Amino acid sequence: MEGLSFSEFTKKIYIQAPVEEIYRCWATEAGLCAWFLREAAFHHGAGTRRGSHDLARVGDRYAWKWHNSDAEETGTIFEAEDGRSLGFEFAGECRVRVSLEASGGRALVTLRQYGIPTDEKSKLVYHYGCSTGWTFWLANLKAWLEHGILLNEKETDLREDPLAGFEFVNI
């Protein structure tokens, strides 16, 4: 198990869709809200909000809200290579980089979360929790782009269940 560490993880999935389409699902408000988030906003410059179909750029600040959660994730975009990769601060000290590579008529999506602190709470919340969460969300993106269906739970409000994020596979 050489190369594995609690300070980072990588998740990969092949998706039958053009790289450019997948990139827009990650780098625009409209794209993120189609398969992933309840609300998304990218702000640039002096706080001006980007249009819902405008691509995020390096230096943009983002604010994201999920279904079944009152929490808001905020951070900065540190990498935005059109159609190839998007990097953003995430979960406190962590960083996430999503890279896309065309491969035989489909795309390889690689998500790497790194800079995870290795104290016991961070191992549970940011390594285990985020690793599990990203696994689901990548599968949800594949289902959305290949079949036009969403797998995430939006019908039942699970916010009162403190273990919902650890027990339910689709939030």
Offer a few descriptive terms.
171 residues; alpha+beta; Alpha-D-Glucose-1,6-Bisphosphate, Chain A, domain 4; 8-stranded antiparallel beta sheet
Summary, kept brief:
This protein has 171 residues and is α+β, with helices and mostly antiparallel strands. It has helices spanning 19-27, 29-35, 120-147, 164-167; strands spanning 8-15, 39-44, 48-49, 61-65, 72-81, 85-90, 94-103, 106-114. It is globular, with a radius of gyration of 16 Å.
Describe this structure in words.
The protein is of the alpha+beta class. The chain has one domain (9-167): 2-Layer Sandwich (Alpha-D-Glucose-1,6-Bisphosphate, Chain A, domain 4). Helix content is 28%, strand content 33%. It has 4 helices and 8 strands; from the N terminus they run E-H-H-E-E-E-E-E-E-E-H-H. It has an 8-stranded antiparallel β-sheet, with helices on one face. A hairpin with a 3-residue loop joins strand 5 (72-81) and strand 6 (85-90). The chain is globular and about 35 Å long. The two termini are 29 Å apart. The mean pLDDT is 94.
